[in-house]
Amino acid sequence: MTTLAEVARKAGVTGATVSNVLRGRGKVGNETRERVLAAVRELNYRPNLTARALAEGKPQTVALVVSSIANPFYPEFALAVEQAVRKLGYFLVVCNTNDDPAQERAYLDAIVGSLAHGVLVMNADFVQIEELVALRQRGVPVVLCMWEKPDTPPPLPSVAVDFFRAGMVAAEHLIKLGHRRIGAVLGSELSGNHIWRYRGFCEAMSRAGIDLLENGTVCGHDTIDAGRNAGHALLAAVPDLTAIFASNDLPALGVLQAAADLGLDVPGDLSVIGITDIQLAHQVRPALTTVAVPIQESAELAVEMIMQMMREKGPEGSSAPAMLREASVPRLVVRASTARPGKG
Amino acid sequence: MTTLAEVARKAGVTGATVSNVLRGRGKVGNETRERVLAAVRELNYRPNLTARALAEGKPQTVALVVSSIANPFYPEFALAVEQAVRKLGYFLVVCNTNDDPAQERAYLDAIVGSLAHGVLVMNADFVQIEELVALRQRGVPVVLCMWEKPDTPPPLPSVAVDFFRAGMVAAEHLIKLGHRRIGAVLGSELSGNHIWRYRGFCEAMSRAGIDLLENGTVCGHDTIDAGRNAGHALLAAVPDLTAIFASNDLPALGVLQAAADLGLDVPGDLSVIGITDIQLAHQVRPALTTVAVPIQESAELAVEMIMQMMREKGPEGSSAPAMLREASVPRLVVRASTARPGKG
DNA sequence: CTGAAAGCGCTAACAC
DNA sequence: GTGTTAGCGCTTTCAG
After folding, report:
1. CATH architecture type of domain A54-162+295-327
2. Whole-prediction pTM value?
3. What distance in Å separates the CA atoms of residue A316 and residue A306, rounded to the nearest whole number?
4. Which nucleotide's C1' atom has the smallest distance to the CA of B28?
């Protein structure tokens, strides 16, 4: 491996000068610069990032902690994050905890051990928040990427997405279409991560003067399979439903499948709406009507925040960045899974 | 940040000793060890990976180069890779080139600059192979993860998957079901990446004495959308098709959509089969019959190879590992998208 | 068994 | 403008 020193020798200068021309710092004579550049080219020199990181005291990497790489939402977000950090010269290290606290702990330890300069956390709920707070106290910049609890201030810098609003928008769409008997499928416990989406749904319903259905809400997980099960359960419990609100696209897709299993026509017999607008939403048939969440924007905001924190000094950052930045509001994307009721 | 030295001071020993107890090297007195461990715990010490990497001359990371994180196959493979490398104490750095040679170059430069100790490349065709070969010559371990060209020996260590066989298996399934008028949708150019899958398909057809249809093959990209377009084109050109072979699951899913668009019942009017068995395949309705490729196994083989290479010395590794290791054969997974013809 | 010392390759003051 | 000089935090011979 060619080193700085070899380049320096070949160019007849000292290491400091090479470093200077490479990083554009300090003043370097024009002809010297040329000589150095030539040597670099000739020797095919590439600076050793590890050494640089050690010398600078910080690695050029940002970590993205995700609980499950299996959720298709993950790559879309990761891609956005990767591009944002790359634009700033950083690299992305993926930390897939697989919902395993031990695995998560291992990653966080590595991060403290300067695996990464900053950490982005995707699904704060599946993660040991206290561990993250401890990490932050040790001086590691941390930001939560999708805070969805408007009632509680996040324990760490976060980007918030208004999922309450998303829930409302979804419900309003259904209501405007004329639906009254609307069921709900949640991708989390009732008290879990999706609670505000559901509250938004309920709010819209009550504003419209529509009562929630008895047994009209089924909770599950944030997966297609769970959504399918929930869909079946819901449809069995309340057969005359005309629409189903799902708290996320994955379960919504599952509901679509349940409808197919039962021979129900969507949207003729049943309308279905989700939240997020993952790619799959438009790739499935019927294409899913959903409330699009600003994925890319959230990723960019999160990266912006982490960069700012990384630029700053100690644990608590003297000129601390706003602890909460809000991404723009979710917006309705009408596709083929919703229609006026009774068309079937 | 607590350092080795601080721990050493606190334990009343020297750095070397701390290092020894931490890594289990050398002999350390039992009581000394205890003292050191106590200090470590007390100070919450975590070794600095950057410094360690510098001192050891190699980072604890492996890079995975992918051309497009958008392909849903990516996360499944990445997950398998991530878990395999983690098990060995390495970290995964994701390098998403986005099909941009400049971006790819930037990553490879960084890797030479010891971003990673070894590189796994997923989609060799979308990548500048020569660059990878150059990388290898500079001493960086590189392995190609899914070599699918049985006729050309790979230019680099690779794990091969028998896609020719996969194509045959798919076709044979259709044929055994009684189909004769079978179209093909390719997720690449005819001469492109999926050629061997297609050749396998053709081979099975000819062995069964079935002629390929005139205009019965449409080429496109490896995406759902392209598959849908191809499906429409194919169905328009050869309306009396009873089955379609797709060279990959994504295009197969697109064909499913095209069928839905046209009001065709699958599998009543049309059978569809894909290759790979990505998760989506069973999440879609009708669930896709496909030929499962050993994703996890390939990932593990690839990781095994890269680890072996990393253990060895120079560019060409004295006791070079087999340059080609083959993953087990693809196997048929029958689901709901195929049936005997003429049931519609 | 434990300590001392010499780097790994690069950066960052500060001299010249 | 360019060279000198210290490290960054850890590993690793090699003495003692």
Report:
1. 3-Layer(aba) Sandwich (3.40)
2. 0.91
3. 13
4. C1
